[in-house]
Specification:
Layout (H helix, E strand, L loop, with lengths): L1 H28 L16 H4 L5 H4 L7 E2 L4 E4 L13 E7 L4 E5 L5 E4 L2 E11 L5 E2 L2 E2 L2 E10 L5 E12 L4 H11 L7 E7 L12 E7 L7 E14 L1 H10 L19 E4 L13
Parallel strand pairs: 1-7, 2-14, 10-13
Antiparallel strand pairs: 3-4, 3-11, 4-6, 5-6, 6-9, 7-8, 9-10, 12-13, 12-14
Length: 282
């Protein structure tokens, strides 16, 4: 009996390993898309995963891009300052597996772009930054997503963006740190009470870039109005690690690779006519 017993034990151990690993493997199979370069569901394959994601591969106005000074057209008209009408509203924070998202449950206000009012839906983070300024990539990027319903029933999207370098803690993230620590699993959500979007600090008087691009994750829908603040903020290393350690293995670096500009125009709005107009403002 020694021979069969010796053979059976390794088989039982192997079976136990498969049983233990199966839920994790099954969950991995459910991942819709990944940020792992070279993987079957990585960024270079997004456009092949679903027919409705074809723009990720075939689109000609994709995001993110590098905001090079030599491609920028300066707009000094202050009439299109980054006006917003944000207000206090109840919010929750959700672990989406590939990022952490703040969602406002009621009317949190809006921004106005070219006479159209876009209503704030939520905010989430990417690390490192998806957009670059003159070839420089930053530690973190925040996206504030706004939408308006058009006459045909479709939604048009406008994203307001802040870039962060390592330094002092970001006050907005500081408000959410304890809640983020409590949602370590994908799909977990927690109410965070009343949050004022203005606490993010994207307001009037700042220089900002604007161009027409796309969502930076599937379905990569085009026609998105991007507004990227030229004021570089700071985030602490501990806050960055908190975000990274909260998401799944396939999103430890959740920045989509740069996309071709394809002769699109990039505008730099300078409401207060700053000096050194093409340089980031720290």
């Amino acid at each position: 009996m020694k021979g069969p017993t010796k053979t059976l034990i390794p088989c039982l151990l192997l079976l136990a390993t498969i049983v233990i690993q199966y839920p994790a493997a099954a969950k991995a199979l459910e991942v819709e898309f990944s940020y792992l370069e070279g993987s079957e569901k990585g960024p270079s394959r997004w456009g092949d995963l679903k027919p409705e994601w074809a723009a990720c591969k075939n689109g000609t106005s994709q995001s993110p891009i590098d905001l090079w000074s030599r491609r920028v057209r300066v707009v000094s008209d202050s009439s299109d300052d980054l006006n917003n009408g944000y207000k206090l509203a109840t919010a929750s924070i959700l672990n989406r597996g590939h990022d952490i998202q703040v969602s406002w449950q009621s009317d949190a206000g809006s921004i106005r772009i070219n006479g159209t009012q876009f209503f704030l839906q939520g905010a989430h983070w990417h690390w490192p930054s998806e957009h670059l300024i003159n070839g420089k990539r930053y530690a973190l990027e925040l996206h504030m997503v706004h939408q308006v319903t058009q006459p045909d029933g479709s939604n048009k999207t406008a994203v307001v963006t802040a870039l962060y370098r390592l330094g002092r803690p970001d006050p907005f993230l500081s408000m959410l740190e304890e809640s983020i620590k409590e949602i370590r699993e994908e799909g977990e959500e927690k109410s965070v009470g009343v949050i004022d979007p203005s606490e993010i600090g994207l307001g009037r008087g700042h220089r900002y870039y604007r161009y027409i691009g796309s969502l930076t994750a599937p379905p990569c829908t085009e026609g998105v109005i991007w507004t990227i603040s030229n004021k570089i903020r700071t985030v602490s290393r501990e806050q960055l690690h908190l975000l990274v350690n909260s998401v799944q293995y396939y999103a430890k670096r959740n920045a989509r690779p740069l996309q071709p500009l394809h002769n699109r125009e990039i505008q730099l709005y300078a409401p207060n006519a700053y000096n050194n107009i093409n340089k980031p403002h720290y």
